[in-house]
Amino acid sequence: xxxxLRAHELLRDNAELLSHxxxxxxxxxxxxxxxxxxxxYAWLRLLAGNEGVPFVVGDDxxxxxxxxxxxxxxxxxxxxxxxxxxxxxxxxxxxSTGTILDAANALIRHNTSRMGKNLxxxxxxxxxxxxxxxxxxxxxxxxxxxxxxQWIDSGRRADDCAxxxxxxxxxxxxEEYLLRKNIPYRVYGGQRFxxxxxxxxxxxxxxxxxxxxxxxxxxxxxxxxxxxxxxxxVSLIRLxxxxxxxxxxxxxxxxIEQGVFATRAGTAVKAFMDLVVGIRERMSDWTLGNQMQGxxxxxxxxxxxxxxxxxxxxxxxxxxxxxxxxxDAFAMPAEDADAGLTELQSxxxxxxxxxxxxxxxxxxxxxxxxxxxSAKGLEFPLVFLVGMEDGLFPHQRSVEEAGGRLEEERRLxxxxxxxxxEMLCLCYAEVRRMHGQENYCRPSRFIDEMxxxxxxxxxxxxxxxxxxxxxxxxxxxxMESPSAPFKLGQHVIHPKFGEGTxxxxxxxxxxxxxxxxxxxxxxKWLVLAYANLQAL
Length: 536
Fold this sequence. Notes:
Layout: H1 2-13, H2 15-24, E1 27-30, H3 38-48, E2 53-56, H4 73-81, H5 98-108, E3 129-136, H6 137-153, E4 161-165, H7 171-180, E5 185-187, H8 197-210, H9 215-221, H10 231-244, H11 248-258, H12 263-282, H13 288-298, H14 301-305, H15 310-329, H16 334-338, H17 343-356, E6 367-371, E7 380-385, H18 396-400, H19 405-417, E8 420-434, E9 437-440, H20 445-448, E10 455-458, E11 491-494, E12 498-506, E13 513-518, E14 522-527, H21 528-531, E15 534-535
Helix pairs in contact: 1-3, 5-19, 6-7, 8-9, 8-12, 8-13, 8-15, 8-17, 10-11, 11-12, 13-15
């Protein structure tokens, strides 16, 4: 960035130099123009001047890097700044089916800040877009992996399949279910969930609480967050451990007792050990999920990662929250219980096994998993867009903030959809665990912005799919409550699912859900505030 800035200043302030380069470079070609930032565009305008002939290639509908400085306005302002420009729209698509393109075109038309184009193909219309309404995030992962297994069993390749998600934390459950099915996979442009730095840090604290003599865990977190324990101090602990045949924890305590450390370092090591002991004593009777959250809070890992750049901070914190979800939802296998393991030991063993499985190599036939940002420029026969819920995709930040963030999220959805060559499947969860509690989710507004006739809702197959979830006995809406808009057994109609009968209610306030058995679409849970039901 600074090179560009200084080059711009040099050309701006030196007329002779600017004239020389304008004569030398008459024709200027810019690729991926939608990803240029403000200084790059200023540099282009300066170098082109009035006589230069810039040729720029870009797609404003694929401008998805605003968070790192890209300006979609550069595409829109180009015609203003270069009035003699000729615009050539490349609208024929050679990748996706007609159905996928029609849905993507309809979606992106909801953006107001765009030059406008309409993709088409001479190829097949293709199958309808699949939409799966999962009961929760586990059901979503199970469904996607089952579909991939069916795809492979039909003779197709695993690397035909891509799972695209908005945040990296969403990968964990898909990894878990793929491992259960022994389907190789690769996290494109990133690490597996349990290999991520912040996840390994939090688990190291948990391991140290369980076993203070875990040297690897001790060494990983003794100075994270930074607490004035440098490499010299750690080397002294290692030396003491080797000479005395002790673990690092035991050696650190012995160093403190023998006055081996300088005063400041000794104080810092003692404070760290007191912190670990204190956390262990306070959390002895906590649930596994609360232990994980307590470790993250009391170790101040959150504060540590909040000092990083905003985008990286958000990713790390989302991964830590997902780790808490993993601990909270963990069910100990029967074989671990039979072997006498505690729940904590079983969870740590499970995490170690998943972290220990290395990723599939680039040349291997494996499922591709990636964030939507990483998917740009790639294509796959079968694509799953998962987590299609308001607050997740579009991201809650984009909904709350002004300045075109929602339009960029819509462009991101457009990019994700147009990665699919043959089949596209959209998935959302009706209930998703976030921040330690289950939340009822509203399907992404992007789904409603696609033509309904292009989408086919997939219903769970008999015996495999949707787990039954009884209405909660407490905290719910009483069936006799006057605030209930419908009665049990009442006939209602929905604009998409048609006629049905009310079976039950659950939840309270804005989270009230109604269970309706539709004549054609089957039984569904709907968030009452958004269900648009009418009594018959």
